[in-house]
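User: My collaborator sent over this chain with a note saying "see what the structure looks like." That's all I know about it. Can you take a look?
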Amino acid sequence: MAAQLLHLEAMASRPRFRIQVAPFSAPEARSFTLPVVLLTMPNRSVIGYSETQRRGYLERDLETLEEWISEYDYLQGEALSRAASIEFIREVRRGFEHG
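Assistant: Without extra context I'll predict from the sequence alone. Here is the result:
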């Protein structure tokens, strides 16, 4: 786990990457019950991808996608800043390394 967190630190420090942590202490920020990926296509349309333990699926329904985009925007607003997220990851990694 420490190696994975160190890799996240390294990736988050690159200018083209943004990693933001939504801590468990902010339950209102946990709007998604499943992993969700929002994909912006070259023509600027958006599709979504989600998965359960049994399968993954693409979502193209505009109403669902608008809801997911809204929830994602809210989640991003509630998440830690980029710098605070890197520090959070660093502290968790140190905890694994020391103990």
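A starting point for your reply to your collaborator: The chain has three helices and three strands.
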